Amino acid sequence: MTEYATPDAHGIYVISPSSAIADPKTLERASVRLTKLGYKVAIDRQALAVNQRFAGTDAQRLSAFSRAIKQKLPIVMASRGGYGLTRLLPQLDFKAIADSGKRFIGQSDFTAFNLALLAKTGAVSYVGPTACADFGANKLDLLTAEVFGEAMRGELEILSFETRDADSIDCRGTLWGGNLATLCTLIGTPYMPKISGGILFVEDVNEHPYRVERMLNQLYQAGILGKQKALILGQFTDYRLAPHDQGYDLPAVIKYVRKTYGIPVITGLPFGHTPMKVTLPVGAKVGLATERGLVHLVLDEHEH
């Protein structure tokens, strides 16, 4: 277990690599809350920049990564998701980012960075809360903050969660994934990790079940999904069924996936565009086991 001597060792540097922050008050609120939780917080000088829908020009957002790896705080957190990171991937110096030893964390559009870093360097980064959407929300989910803190302190050894629908499995592999739509945009690019025997987790928002199925089909037909040991489904939120769906919903998609892909499926991962979300290490070797109604992700398998 890693131990840090002072709260400052948990310092957070906030950057805006994707969409512009709609309400600057959320960033201010996030800074106050994180400070109260014991973190030293520094906001990148261009975090509130705006250029069309983006948090500044591509050059401005790229420069934020350069500043992030040079400053002293160990955690680099995205202010929010949205769109914009795939525009930056060809210009990012992934070796310098990996060599910096910083712990990068974000969600949604940040999946493009998580997976590109893994593909290019093998370095571990994190999916989890963002500054504005989570720590700057009207109400902070305390469990989200607690799990984030444990993960950043190296104390999160086993993550257990309830499930209503999980295949029986006991395996080990590389944990990878994130936002499903963003992940699929990387297929066929140098930024898609080549992982066999992995444990893939996905989530999404505003995606009808048929679109979720279509993206999973794309992953399967591209020869990616069939190489994984398990598929973990997070939260799929804010979609609306239509009368002509006639019973076709997310459970129908899951049934189709099991029948068509022949891969173990686990549901219920508390991660997605939801107030409560866990923090997960993308690229880490983990264990996965299920028992009746419970799933266990073993994030630290060191011997005691």
TrEMBL record:
<dbReference type="InterPro" id="IPR029062">
    <property type="entry name" value="Class_I_gatase-like"/>
</dbReference>
<comment type="similarity">
    <text>Belongs to the peptidase S66 family.</text>
</comment>
<dbReference type="GO" id="GO:0006508">
    <property type="term" value="P:proteolysis"/>
</dbReference>
<keyword id="KW-0720">Serine protease</keyword>
<dbReference type="InterPro" id="IPR040921">
    <property type="entry name" value="Peptidase_S66C"/>
</dbReference>
<dbReference type="GO" id="GO:0004180">
    <property type="term" value="F:carboxypeptidase activity"/>
</dbReference>
<keyword id="KW-0121">Carboxypeptidase</keyword>
<feature type="domain" description="LD-carboxypeptidase N-terminal">
    <location>
        <begin position="12"/>
        <end position="128"/>
    </location>
</feature>
<feature type="active site" description="Charge relay system">
    <location>
        <position position="203"/>
    </location>
</feature>
<dbReference type="Pfam" id="PF02016">
    <property type="entry name" value="Peptidase_S66"/>
</dbReference>
<dbReference type="GO" id="GO:0008236">
    <property type="term" value="F:serine-type peptidase activity"/>
</dbReference>
<keyword id="KW-0645">Protease</keyword>
<feature type="active site" description="Nucleophile">
    <location>
        <position position="108"/>
    </location>
</feature>
<dbReference type="InterPro" id="IPR040449">
    <property type="entry name" value="Peptidase_S66_N"/>
</dbReference>
<dbReference type="InterPro" id="IPR027478">
    <property type="entry name" value="LdcA_N"/>
</dbReference>
<keyword id="KW-0378">Hydrolase</keyword>
<feature type="active site" description="Charge relay system">
    <location>
        <position position="273"/>
    </location>
</feature>
<feature type="domain" description="LD-carboxypeptidase C-terminal">
    <location>
        <begin position="172"/>
        <end position="287"/>
    </location>
</feature>
<protein>
    <submittedName>
        <fullName>Muramoyltetrapeptide carboxypeptidase</fullName>
    </submittedName>
</protein>
<dbReference type="InterPro" id="IPR003507">
    <property type="entry name" value="S66_fam"/>
</dbReference>
<dbReference type="Pfam" id="PF17676">
    <property type="entry name" value="Peptidase_S66C"/>
</dbReference>
<dbReference type="InterPro" id="IPR027461">
    <property type="entry name" value="Carboxypeptidase_A_C_sf"/>
</dbReference>
